[in-house]
Amino acid sequence: MEERVFSLDDIRLFAVDLDGVVYRGNVMLPGASSFISRIRELDMPLIFVTNSTLRPRGYYAAKLKAMGIPVAPQEIITAAYATGRYLMRIFNGASPTVFLLGERGLEEELEDLEPRYLTFQDQEVAQAVVVGLDRKVNYEKLCKAVRDVMEGALFIGVNGDPLWPVEEGFMPGVGVFLAAIETATGVKPFIVGKPNTYMLELAIQLYGCEPSQVLMVGDKLDSDIMMGRRLGAKTALVLSGVTLPGELEKAPPEMEPHVVARDLAHLEELLFHSE
């Protein structure tokens, strides 16, 4: 699968995941700096796309800069930022009432929406229940979320990841909270993040290209690659993250990448040195 099925001339936008692709924790992965520098040298558009809910875009821009990769916050789309854009579209610029399961980073990305937040003690029903990663979730918060969804509030998940990778292993992710609320209410959430295509759609709108002109680079079959495939983008899987080589053999067509590389160093070789 390492033989390319497209030409570099076909690409008008690189969309690159972060964790497991560019870095793992605070350690840059092999070839990341060189790969990104090559894209910059060719003056090709680049956007970073991550399912993160905890931090604002500026945090990731600062983290990448500290690793020697200068990036503007506007070149990063997080699931938290995309959730804010999605709510602005749904409410047509109006300021909705929101009950939020989430932390300060998510609140910062919703600031342009100018929401009025409700607490779990408020009897008023929120217009939207927004669920991100909340490390201080409790029973009262879940009760409020369940009641409001049952009363007709929009039910929105920032992402659907069941696990949150940390340096010590894994912790429960946003998907755990969503599953609890869905089980209680019977209502399925709209999930903004991967593998939904919404974040990639924002990138395409920003750069004015067609889905077929995008190369989505990621390390997860069921999020990065599925998102790209669903939208009709080209996809590249790097094996520097969570996907093991043996999983590729079992991947259904909607998760099958167009090209596979060990890491970004290998992908740079496949894309830029084999013309």
UniProtKB/TrEMBL annotation:
One of its GO terms (molecular function) is metal ion binding. Belongs to the HAD-like hydrolase superfamily. The keyword Chaperone does not apply. PANTHER family: 4-NITROPHENYLPHOSPHATASE-RELATED (PTHR19288), HALOACID DEHALOGENASE-LIKE HYDROLASE DOMAIN-CONTAINING PROTEIN 2 (PTHR19288:SF46). It holds the Pfam family Hydrolase_6. Gene3D superfamilies: HAD superfamily/HAD-like. It comes from Thermosulfidibacter takaii. Mg(2+) binds at D17, D19, D219. Substrate binds at K194. The active site is at D17, D19. This is HAD-IIA family hydrolase.
